[in-house]
Design brief:
alpha+beta, 2 domains, about 50% helix, globular
Length: about 210
């Protein structure tokens, strides 16, 4: 089905590799189709070509899409593959090496350049900061200020997305990207003001108006 030239595989005889065993956020993000010896992962319910194919101990991608490569590496980490082997085009192997090393996996099959090593340092630093921001947002950040404002803004986005998009997998993709975007903006110093609640008197007037 998929071209086996682009792949991330487990190294080691005792490494588990059960097709379909992926992190929960990826299970919600993709549409899946189970076959006899593999699971196929799709971004849309209508497309014919999977983003990647899961054969247990090896994950295979038809293209060198950076987002798919990062998700494949996240699956490898989820399954405890501390050492992986990458195969395929130079672009695929480079992205898989960067994604794997960012998550502290050992990666065989690609020889990094000096610029790759510099890129890895930047990704690790950015990954650490972004992960901290995302955790703050997921907790709701109790103390107010810009982080609380961002959390409130995300609640509004979530309500709008759930009211307009019926498919849970699509909802998850949109909301995941929204959280990442807000975290990136916070890291750059953007401020999100906490929405001001109207006085109690105004709320009572609104309630009277709606009950008439």
């Amino acid at each position: 089905m998929a071209d086996p030239s682009n792949s991330v595989g487990a190294v080691g005889a005792r490494i588990p590799g059960t097709p379909g065993d992926v992190p929960e956020r990826l299970a919600r993000r993709y549409f899946t189709e189970a076959r006899a010896r593999e699971h196929r992962f799709y971004l849309d319910a209508q497309v014919k070509t999977p983003v990647f194919v899961d054969r247990g101990r090896r994950l295979i991608a038809p293209r060198s899409d950076p987002n798919a490569v990062r998700d494949m590496v996240a699956i490898a980490q989820h399954r405890g593959w501390s050492l992986v082997e990458v195969r395929g085009t130079p672009g695929f192997r480079r992205e898989a090496w960067l994604a794997g090393r960012t998550l502290d996996l050992e990666v065989r099959g690609y020889q990094p350049t000096q610029r790759d090593l510099q890129e890895l340092d930047r990704r690790r630093e950015g990954h650490t900061r972004l992960d901290a921001r995302l955790k703050e947002l997921e907790r709701g950040v109790a103390a107010g200020g810009s982080h609380r404002g961002a959390a409130d803004r995300l609640k509004v986005v979530e309500a709008v997305v759930k009211s307009r998009i019926a498919e849970p997998a699509t909802q998850d993709r949109v909301l995941h990207r929204a959280r990442e975007r807000v975290a990136e903006l916070l890291e750059r110093g953007e401020r999100f003001d906490v929405p001001q609640r109207p006085p109690a008197r105004d709320l009572k007037l609104k309630e009277r108006h709606h009950t008439r």
